[in-house]
Amino acid sequence: MTLSSSERVVPSPAFLRAWTVEGRRPGRLLRVSRQPLKEYKLGRKTEICLEPLQKEENLGPQDVVLRTQMRLPGQRAYAPCVDLVWDTGRGWTAGSLRQRVAHFCSLPVEKIEIAKYFPEKFEWLPISSWNQHLTKRKKKKKQDNLQGAPYYLKDGDTIGIKNLLVEDDDDFSTARDDLGKETQKQLALGKKSQEALRVQNGDLFSSTKTPGRPRAPEASLSIHVGSFR
Q1: Which H or E run includes 227?
Q2: At a CB cut-off of 8 Å and minimum separation 6, what does 175 contact?
Q3: Of 16, 53, 156, 200, which is least packed with CB atoms within 10 Å of its CB?
Q4: Which top CATH class is 61-195?
């Protein structure tokens, strides 16, 4: 994919990131600037957004772009996002990511906690070192890969960072998250109420429109008992 700098208010295409749009959010990062779009196997209706950058960027095939936010001590809020480029050449491990974040923040790795944000659920999922929550036996059976469940880490994900030197608790949520969850709860309750009302009205309409067949008058019945002796 090639972008002409004369058509953009940027010095060169290296000052732009191209993303697909999924659910009104940046989805897949199109990282090879000179690769034809047809090689990405995009759908016909795929939308693409361009993100201007402050400096040139040439991402490698194993680089992952993450949005990091530092937790503000004593507040249920975060500082503005700062992009972090993580080289996953040594693996998509929790330990590798924690080391990269700690170096990025100039903090000891044991003095930070990080969590991935799921905006559609308004939830934060802490990313602990693999040996903090798995036994050696389980570690042999499973791989420490943040691309898989439950994190599904990818380009553009938001990572919350907590400095344990100034704030030592496990809460990553914000007041906005509380509001978002409450709104989702109310919407879910509203949908259930509407569905129940729809079913009730449907039953009433059905019984009104198709009344039961009137019962026929009972006929007389004569029984004759024969002699079998």
Answers
A1: none
A2: 76, 77
A3: 200
A4: alpha beta
Q: Where are the alpha helices (DSSP H) in the chain?
A: 94-105, 130-133, 136-141, 175-209
CB 163 within 8 A of CB 112: yes
CA distance 164 to 170: 10
List of the chain residues with pLDDT < 70: 1-9, 32-34, 129-143, 202-229
Q: In angstroms, rounded to a whole number, what is the distance separating the alpha carbons of residues 32 and 38?
A: 12
pLDDT digits (tens, 9 = 90+) for 170-189: 899 999 999 999 999 999 98
Average per-residue pLDDT in the chain? 83
**DSSP labels, 84-102:** EEEEGGG-S-HHHHHHHHH
pTM of the shown model = 0.76
Residue with tokens 């090689």: 39
